[in-house]
Structure formats: C-alpha cells, structure tokens
Design a protein that fits this description.
The structure is a single chain. Helix 2 (67-77) crosses helix 4 (107-114). This protein folds into 2 domains: 31-278, q2cbj1_9rhob like domain (Jelly Rolls), CATH 2.60.120.620; 279-337, no CATH class. By secondary structure, it is an alpha+beta fold. It contains 8 helices and 15 strands. The radius of gyration is 21 Å and the shape is globular. It starts with 10 loop residues before the first strand and ends in a 5-residue tail after the last strand. The longest helix is centred in the N-terminal third of the chain and has 11 residues, at 46-56. The strands form 4 sheets. The chain has a 7-stranded mixed sheet with strand order 3-4-12-9-14-8-5. It comes from Torulaspora globosa.
Length: 343
C-alpha cells in the first residue's frame, strides 16, 4: 500500500557537503502579465479580486485604507518597533525594525485590517472547508472550518537595507504544493493582505513577487524563472495587496533616505497553528470585552467541531460567557446533522 511521500527528494553527500537531486523543469512559460493586470480599483469588487488571485497569486487593490487611517496606525505603532541583534541579517537586515502582533499593539490595525470584511471574505473563500463525519448513531455531521489571524507584522525597512530572500509565506506550515496548470482550491492554507503605510516603490524597498509562482510545485524554486514575471508592488499610502501564501515574494533593497513601512497580515485555517501566539503572555482581562468576531479572528474560538476547546467549551465563551447566548456559534459543535439515504 502506498502512502504520502514525506520526503520530496533524494540526497547524497560529497566532500563533506549534502546535495539534493532536483529535476530541472521549465516554469512560467507563456505571456508575462503587466502590473496593471494585477490592479483592482474597488475593494468591494470581490469577483475581480478572486479572479486575479487565481490567475496571478496576487491582487493590488487601490485605496484600501484612507491615508489618514494609515497615519493613525503609524502613531499607535511607534512605541512598539524593535529588532534583535542576533538576527544578523536573518530573517531581516539590520536596518529593518518590526512590530509583531500588531493587531494587539494597534487598535486601528485590529479594526481596519484584521477585522476587515473584505479580508475575511477573500480568506474564507480560498481556505474554508466543509467536511462530513460519521457518528455512531447512524447520522452524519457536517462542520465548516473558518479562518484565523496567522500573523500581523509591521515591517519598517530602513535606508540601506538589502534585499530579502524570496520565500513562500506558508513554508512554516510545511505546505508542499503540487505543480498546477491552473489554480486548484484546497492547495492554499494562507491568504495575506499587505497595506502600504508609506509609499512603497522600487527605490525604497517595495515588495517584489514572482507572478504565477503560486502554481509552482514544491521543488520549482525561485532559482530560475522568466525575469519578466518579477514585479515590484509599487503602492501609494493606503493601497493594499492580497497575496496567496503560495506566492514567492520578498522585500527589496531600500536605496532611499527614508523608511518604508508596510503592514503584512496573513490569515490561515482555524485548525492550523498560528505563527504568532496572541494569548500566552496576555492577561485574560485583555480579551474579556472583545467582540466575538475579534476573539474568533485571534484564534480564541474552537475550529468546528471542537479543535482548541477548553473543557469542550469555546475559549471565547470562557473569557466572556455572555457571548455564547448572543452567538449562533455557541449552539453546537456541528454545522448540521445529515441523515443518510443508501441507494
């Protein structure tokens, strides 16, 4: 009986070094897209956003936030920037500082980005699952997964910072993508939303991405690709970019004399572990008065049927018992009961 191959390639050693045998493959053949092909002018145009993510792995949305909102976010974030000397260029150059768990550090980040309806709707569209389970009474139960905030990090790329290395955001979740000719639902476990808090351009370190790399296989790395498919995500303050976790991207060198600041928020499936822990060092009182929507996005609700429970209760309802009565999510562990008919 065959099982899933947990190892993607064979290795061998020579002269004290380890090598991998990786088959060579031509990738990204065909017409290269233009930057304008990625752009949607209205964040409410859900259909266009989905279509561009399916085709390119990316979608730029103009005027996602008002510049005034971006300025307010930056003021809230200012006391929270840090860097660790031991990074030493990995994962970030010494000129870059960050704010991690920005959804907790900035109330406006929480409200305008993490809880944004379009961000949620797009993430849910690409990642939600509906599965059916047999239970011993002869009936089936259906449960739907939801999405949660995987990470919320602000990157302040300082003058003189060098290029970041290309990577897929979902590498921490060991998501190995089959090579595809066209987009296949079920492959992605992350959807991101980047918002420019300052203008982002080729001079000051805009994120660059390889268009179409969301269709690459696990060994189709960014070592050889059509250079016309590398695009810089040049954004005005308040512009946003949706990105699938499978798309290769990286920050670029900052050749200007000013900081480039971008907010990068990623959602994941609720049954997967979050990159950032939003809970362990926070007092329960911090969460007690949050809405059910906020607690759910922060991963403080069960992923149906009961993943992440506390004594078979949702953590959200432990923190605030009143929410259970107000929320339909408190009515049970399954979306519905299904009676089978055998034919």
């Amino acid at each position: 009986m065959s099982t899933k191959n947990l190892h993607l390639f064979d290795t061998f050693e020579k002269d004290g070094k380890k090598f991998a045998r990786i088959p060579k493959h031509t990738i990204n053949a065909g017409t290269s897209p233009k930057y304008s092909d990625l752009v949607v002018k209205d964040k409410s145009d859900f259909k266009a956003i989905v279509e561009k993510l399916e085709l390119y792995g990316l979608c730029v949305v103009k005027h996602y936030l008002e510049p005034e909102t971006c300025e307010h976010i930056k003021k809230e974030l200012e006391p929270h920037y840090f860097r660790h000397q031991e990074w030493n260029g990995s994962p970030f150059p010494k000129e870059t500082t960050v704010v991690t768990r920005a959804a907790l550090a900035s109330p406006t980040c929480m409200d305008k980005i993490a809880l944004d309806d379009t961000f949620y709707k797009v993430s849910y569209h690409f990642m939600s699952e509906s599965n059916v389970f047999w239970i011993g009474d002869g009936k089936l139960r259906r449960s739907e997964t939801d999405v949660q905030l995987y990470s919320s990090i602000i990157y302040r790329v300082g003058a003189g910072a060098g290029d970041q290395m290309y990577h897929r955001e979902d590498m921490a979740l060991h998501n190995a993508h089959p090579r595809r000719e066209k987009y296949h639902y079920g492959d992605d476990v992350q959807v991101g939303l980047a918002v420019a808090l300052t203008p982002m351009n080729k001079t000051n370190g805009a994120t660059r991405a390889i268009i179409g790399s969301h269709l690459w296989g696990p060994l189709d790395g960014p070592y050889e690709f059509d250079p016309q498919r590398e695009l810089y995500l040049e954004l005005e303050e308040g512009d946003g970019t949706f990105m699938l976790g499978s798309t290769y991207h990286a920050a670029s060198s900052n050749h200007s004399d000013a900081d480039r600041i971008g907010a990068f928020f990623f959602m994941s499936k609720t049954y997967l572990r979050q990159e950032e822990n939003y809970h362990a060092d926070m007092e329960p009182a911090f969460f007690e008065n949050m809405s059910f929507k906020a607690l759910k996005i922060l991963g403080l609700h069960t992923s149906l049927p009961f993943c992440g429970h506390i004594g078979y209760r949702s953590p959200a309802f432990v923190l605030n018992p009143k929410l259970k009565e107000a929320s339909q999510a408190g009515k049970g562990n399954y979306t519905e009961v299904i009676y089978p008919v055998f034919e």
